[in-house]
Amino acid sequence: ASADLAAQTNAAKADIAKQLGPLQQLQTSGQALQALIEKVAPSMWFVHTLDVNGQPSVGSAFAVASTPAQTLLLTSYTTVLAATRKPGPDVFVRQGAAETKVSVWTWDERYDLAFIILPKGGLPVLQAAVTAPAIGDRVYASSGLGSLGSSATEGIITDVSASGIQHTAPVGTAFQGGPLLNAAGLVVAVSSRSYEPLNFPSDAVWFAPFIQSACAKVLQCPAGGLGGQPGAQ
């Protein structure tokens, strides 16, 4: 009888462990996502300004290069579009409780990219992924707004082409201009709600230009990666 009871007990424990497996995997995934958010948060900023109609326009930006005197932030052209015209509205970035007025320096409407200059240096920057993304890879759209200093949504890459990538990570308004990250926290693309390389919009599978697209016009990149000087506009 004791042996039977022990066997039943062990079987019950095994069954409980089996049932808890998916929950434990979910918890691990949540912990990994939180770690990713905390890793990139020091390089993330929330952007706010006004659009051409005087209405609020928001997005995110992230640091790609920093000197002792200033930091270059990459964001969405759509967010700061009105500020690329003269006269234009002021643009501000916020990190935690600190808010700073910034200037829009260069932009590339084709890729929905713009660079803004933050008059504050010595800040951590995000690095571009050196390995090309592949269909089925998990990606994370990051925003500069969140209780941890940032927030993120998760998705997968559904297509990769010369124009960029398609992915399923939700891109809310505050996420446009933020980095699209791989699991290692490296930037593979830039989140956008306006980039339409196929000339039609999408609200379920989003298009994102490769991070290297910033080197086409808005940034003078050194050989091998980002982190150079703002391009001429």
In short:
The protein is 18% helix and 34% strand. It is α+β, with helices and mostly antiparallel strands and 233 residues long.
Q: What topology emerges from the helices and strands here?
A:
Layout: H1 2-40, E1 44-50, E2 56-66, E3 71-75, H2 77-80, E4 91-95, E5 98-108, E6 113-118, E7 138-143, E8 151-161, E9 164-167, E10 179-181, E11 187-190, E12 206-208, E13 219-220, E14 229-230
Antiparallel strand pairs: 1-2, 1-4, 2-3, 3-6, 4-5, 5-6, 7-8, 7-10, 8-9, 9-12, 10-11, 13-14
Low-confidence stretches: none
Helical region count? 2
Give the rounded overall mean pLDDT. Answer: 87
Shape label: elongated
Helix/strand-derived class? alpha+beta
- What level of helicity do the residues show? 10-25%
